[in-house]
RNA sequence: GCGCUUGUAGCUCAAUUGGAUAGAGCGCAGCCCUGCGGAGGCUGAGGUCGUGGGUUCAAAUCCCACCAAGCGCGCCA
């Protein structure tokens, strides 16, 4: 990555300056370069002299000049200038930029990959919706965030495992099973069978009961208890299958589907609580068992085992994270939760700390609320009360690509309106088509070249010298940096912005530069190489976002 | 009341985590098709960065207070 190279060059220059005695031997702040907003300032800039000014007591401009003077020439750098109040600006060489086209073509779909993660094992747990109902739009946001992050982390050389935690053991599942029995009875047995007060009122429960018509003989013959148990298994199985299918429709798959129940079956639940007890964080009081989170700086303690002996959701989550860190030994764990779990974040980190694991190894991403809108009409989504617009309906209506892009065009921690009208518009209003259109356009150019039997494999990229061409290359070179920043900040929305910028620069190039031309065969070949490289970068970006890169539209 | 998140152009959102004149898309006012896909390109107008203090060479970004919105503060998940 050119950015890293520049940083290394800068660091070397500072050391040389110090050794020559032209700069005091002070501890270096983190050496960094950034992209100036103003193109006139060059491709990269560093404010290092400004940061060194205080520690050294000299004028930033003088420091900048000393460092700039010590930079040894390199094939990448064209000019180095010093600008007030103390910036060092770098401009890249045009012929070096042009040569990167060949590098991208060689790298092909591995272009953009970086070695940030050093094969560290990262677990990404996301969606993990209760298998008591269909997924809604909020789950979709988590699913898209998670799967995109997984793609990016993998491209950044992390060893990634995607996991869905299936809550198949809690009270919610009981309520679901009892609701299902009620609907079943109402349908095929006693019409006046009452829905439980804490039941799931959604019509999908009725649909599910109808789907199980063939089981009538079995179910109606059972006692209420065993019928509930039977429906619990059956309902769980059906719901999980449906959730899996809905996620696949959105292009989201998992490596592991982890069952909550297994935490009990494998003894992890007991082990985790024993460990905390051993460390003095578990106490019995008021008839229940508590996790003493106040001992770790939390506002209040939390119940782990209810007075009736049953485990809370928090207790199994403790066991689950014990499993992640102690049992499976992940280097890092990233959980993606909905905004309604906000309050759970700090105590979960406290738990991890109590295990003796550095809490930073657990990162929790909160995805804020999504409100669904159809033009003016606002629709709030809630699983327990009545009918909902499911994720599946949204995917079917607007398409998986548009759905994914929409979720990715906002950062996770800002609330968003998902406007169905807008997302499905196949027009200028919809950036999805703009980006994919750029890819299809390139594909079309390459088809033309093929038709005319132009072999551009020997194209000479040094013919790429004009501003639109070099701008396109500059933008393509940003992909590794985007991957890096997304991996570091866990903010995949930057990909969506990058995709749009890349498409914009390409369209600009396209209108200014004829690619396949009769009058200059060499230039045609060079430009074919350029667009072929642009296609690789665009496709890579789309694929990281889990979207398709269409050849035609 | 306490905690977390958010507040930036008419609208929807960015801002490389403290850098130079705060940027995109849509919308608005105009302009560009005898060429590879016009689902495109170009120009312009539009900003007290919620408010008020503070920190420093430099603040949308960090600190404090306040205002507004959302979420949470269960022996629900």
Write up what this structure looks like.
It is a single chain. This protein has 553 residues and is an alpha/beta fold. Among the domains are: 2-91, Arginyl tRNA synthetase N-terminal domain (Gyrase A, domain 2), CATH 3.30.1360; 97-116 and 433-544, Isoleucyl-tRNA Synthetase, Domain 1. The protein has 21 helices and 14 strands. It has helices at residues 2-19, 48-56, 60-70, 94-107, 137-155, 171-188, 203-211, 216-221, 224-249, 261-265, 268-278, 313-327, 345-354, 391-398, 400-408, 420-424, 431-451, 467-476, 479-489, 493-512, 521-544, and strands at 44-46, 77-83, 87-92, 121-125, 159-166, 256-259, 282-285, 288-291, 302-305, 332-338, 362-367, 370-374, 377-379, 416-419. The strands form four sheets. A five-stranded parallel sheet has the order 6-5-4-10-11, with helices on both faces. Strands 1-3-2 form a three-stranded antiparallel sheet. A three-stranded antiparallel sheet has the order 7-8-9. Helix 18 packs parallel to helix 21. The mean pLDDT is 92. The structure holds one RNA strand of 77 nucleotides.
Numbering strands along the chain, what is their spatial order in the largest sheet?
6-5-4-10-11
What is the tally of beta strands? 14
Named CATH architecture of the domain at 97-116 and 433-544: Orthogonal Bundle
pLDDT < 50 runs, ≥5 residues: none
Radius of gyration: 29 Å
Question: Number of helical segments?
Answer: 21
Report the CATH topology name of the domain at 97-116 and 433-544.
Answer: Isoleucyl-tRNA Synthetase, Domain 1
The overall average pLDDT, rounded, is 92
Specify the structural class: alpha/beta
Oligomer: single chain
């Amino acid at each position: 990555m050119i950015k890293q190279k520049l940083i290394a060059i800068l660091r070397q220059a500072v050391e040389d300056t110090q050794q020559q005695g032209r700069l005091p031997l002070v501890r270096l702040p983190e050496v960094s370069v950034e992209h100036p907003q103003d193109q006139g300032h060059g491709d990269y800039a560093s404010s290092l002299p400004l940061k060194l000014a205080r520690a050294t007591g000299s004028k930033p401009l003088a420091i900048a000049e000393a460092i700039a003077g010590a930079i040894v020439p390199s094939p990448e750098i064209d000019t180095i200038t010093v600008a007030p109040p103390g910036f060092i600006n770098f401009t890249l060489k045009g012929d070096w930029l042009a040569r990167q086209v060949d590098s991208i073509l060689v790298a092909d779909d591995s272009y953009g990959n970086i070695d940030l993660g050093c094969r560290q094992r990262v677990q990404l747990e996301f969606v993990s919706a209760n298998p008591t109902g269909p997924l809604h739009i909020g789950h979709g946001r988590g699913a898209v965030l998670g799967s995109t992050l997984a793609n990016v982390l993998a491209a950044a050389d992390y060893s990634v495992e995607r996991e869905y935690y299936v809550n198949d053991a809690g009270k919610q599942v009981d309520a679901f099973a009892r609701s299902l029995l009620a609907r079943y009875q109402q349908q095929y047995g006693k019409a006046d069978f009452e829905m439980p007060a804490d039941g799931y009122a959604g019509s999908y429960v009725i649909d599910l009961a109808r789907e199980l018509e063939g089981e009538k003989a079995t179910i109606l013959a059972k006692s209420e208890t065993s019928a509930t148990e039977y429906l619990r298994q059956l309902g769980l199985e059906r719901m999980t299958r449906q959730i899996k299918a809905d996620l696949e429709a959105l292009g989201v798959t998992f490596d592991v589907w982890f069952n909550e129940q297994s935490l009990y079956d494998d003894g992890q639940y007991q082990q985790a609580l024993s460990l905390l007890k051993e460390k003095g964080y578990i106490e019995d009081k008021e008839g229940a068992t508590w996790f003493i989170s106040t001992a770790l700086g939390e506002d209040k303690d939390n119940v782990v085992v209810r007075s009736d002996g049953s485990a809370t959701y928090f207790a199994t989550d403790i066991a689950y994270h014990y499993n992640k860190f102690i049992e499976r030994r992940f280097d890092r764990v990233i959980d993606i939760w909905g905004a309604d779990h906000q309050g759970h974040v700090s105590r979960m980190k406290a738990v991890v700390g109590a295990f003796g694991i550095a809490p930073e190894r657990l990162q929790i991403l909160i995805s804020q609320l999504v409100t669904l809108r159809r033009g003016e009409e606002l629709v709030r989504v809630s699983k327990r009360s009545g009918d909902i617009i499911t994720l599946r309906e949204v995917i079917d209506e607007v398409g998986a690509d548009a759905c994914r892009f929409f979720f990715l065009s906002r950062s996770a921690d800002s609330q968003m309106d998902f406007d169905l009208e807008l997302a499905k518009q196949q027009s200028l209003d919809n950036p999805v088509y703009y980006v994919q259109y750029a890819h299809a356009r390139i594909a079309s150019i390459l088809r033309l070249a093929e038709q005319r039997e132009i072999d551009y494999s020997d194209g000479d990229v040094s013919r790429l010298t004009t501003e639109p061409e070099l701008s396109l290359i500059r933008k393509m070179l940003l992909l590794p940096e985007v991957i890096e920043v997304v991996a570091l900040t866990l903010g995949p929305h930057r990909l969506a912005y990058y995709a749009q910028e890349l498409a914009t620069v390409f369209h600009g190039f396209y209108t200014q530069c004829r690619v396949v031309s009769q009058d200059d065969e060499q230039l045609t070949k060079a430009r074919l190489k350029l667009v072929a490289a642009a296609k690789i970068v665009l496709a890579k970006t789309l694929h990281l976002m889990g979207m398709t890169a269409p050849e035609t539209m």
